[in-house]
Amino acid sequence: MVTLAKTGNSEIDEQHAVMQHCLSDLASLLEGPCEPAALIGSLEALTSYAEWHFTFEERLLKRGAYPHLPEHVAEHRAILKQLSSLRRHLGSGKREAVSLLSIVGQWIVDHVNHEDLRSAGYLGSNESDGVLNERTKPALSLRH
Ligand SMILES: [Fe+2]
Ligand SMILES: [Fe+2]
Which helix or strand (DSSP H or E) is residue 12 part of? Predict the structure, then answer.
């Protein structure tokens, strides 16, 4: 997978690294033989983390009166929709799931490398304190 660009906001960059880890985890599970429950668990971990991260960013951008917030939110929604479609197709065969994962993975990379970078450039600082309670962050148990 293509490397995710650094936005300069350390919290957001850390969250992107977790999402990238979740994507790699799911991709490596799909490559080999594995239990359907493991695949579903991995996809659910990615989805719940992505939802949490998107909410974090949207609150930050709203607070900073980011002028392109609607487009940014629309991209988040499209990624979540694609993840939900992947969840529905997980049982229809690995080939389709691998292809859908590759699409959603590319959408995430494109979003981070363009829209997240642009919005972080607009905010221009590391001021994300208290934007979202850490206790609400999904707990992940990723394989390493
Ligand atoms: Fe992001
Ligand atoms: Fe974003």
Answer: helix 10-31
Domain 20-124 top-level CATH class:
mainly alpha
Whole-model pTM? 0.87
User: What count of other Cβ atoms lies within 10 Å of the Cβ of residue 124?
Assistant: 10
At what angle are helices 94-110 and 69-89 packed, to 10 degrees?
170
The DSSP result for 32-66, as a single string, is: S---HHHHHHHHHHHHHHHHHHHHHHHHHHHHTT-
Is 58 within 8 Å of 66 (Cβ atoms)? no
Residue 41, classified by CB atoms within 10 Å of its CB into exposed (0-12), middle (13-18) or buried (19+), is middle
| CA 50 to ligand 1 center in whole angstroms | 8
CA–CA separation, 144 vs 34, rounded Å?
Answer: 16
Q: How much distance in Å is there from the Cα of 90 to the middle of ligand 1? A: 25
pLDDT digits (tens, 9 = 90+) for 74-133: 999 999 999 999 998 887 777 888 888 999 999 999 999 999 999 999 987 545 555 555
User: Tell me, what amino acid is at 134?
Assistant: E
